[in-house]
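Re-run with default settings, no changes from the original entry. Doing this only to confirm the output is reproducible before filing.
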Amino acid sequence: MDVFILGIESSCDDTSAAILKNDKVLSNVISSQVIHEKFGGVVPELASRAHQQNIVPVIEQAFRVANIDKKQLQAIAFTQGPGLMGSLLVGVSFAKAFALARNIPLLETDHLQAHILAHFIDEGQEKPAFPFLCLLVSGGHTQLVLVRDHFDMEIMGQTLDDAAGECFDKAAKTMGLPYPGGPVIDQLAKEGNPKAFSFAEPQIPGLDYSFSGLKTSFLYFLRDALKEDPAFIQHHVNDLCASLQHTIVKVLMEKVIVACKQTGITRVAIAGGVSANSALRNELEIVRKELQWKVFLPRLAYSTDNAAMIGIAGYFKYLKKDFASQGSAPFARAKASFQ
């Protein structure tokens, strides 16, 4: 029998709802909050208020696009965490109320696991076979994950401080570029020289990452350059973006290559918002040819925060009958382990 699941994502500043029929997406509606642009970053209180305004219209639109009736739903999946607590509470509360009213089960999902499981949304593409390695990179998280099964995942390495996406955004803000800065840097970098400038690369043992030092190195470089030429950023913005992006991608990929050598696994996926970065995707393609990897890239629509990934994570939980209770509570910080 077909399973219809409503997925709800509200972990940060995107309100999203999706309807899945088994592992296929019937609708995936996202409402982004432009109010944060003038602040150069997400303001938690404003985000939660915007979720309250957006969640009902977004869910109604998801049903209209999917062209199904609410009575057809078998379950509701929602983001339990990690994320902004106020934002999460909006999605969790709505999911619990909706499930109670419809008398259907709840499916709590981990936002980071859901990013990885987006690869299993069925759109006719080849899906990664287990086990595989996944580089999960976003504005808030950077992790290297060994994926043995849909819910058997081991974090092999992660950032000790800032995430790769945060490094992109903070560097963009320093240069006076619009928020969110990651996509802007990606676009400008296409016209720049990635070897024009060099910045400090973190020397972290093992498979962990660190980006705070790189962020500081970039800041100090600009400070010194602007003393000599107040218009330095305007004159060199493309080269700055290309050089910074090149450094971040290099740091990310070096650890992935080490992880593949340690495990012997040559199936590699990427996930999270930074997985949309064109330089990262290009570098993966280069390494794939050199090292004979099988590489899996998410569709751009499923790389940033979206409810389709919550729905697919919920679908696999539904198959296991791993249901949540009405006492389910959101959590803000990422778990130390997926186990």
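The chain has two domains: 4-117+302-319, 127-298. The chain has a mean pLDDT of 94.
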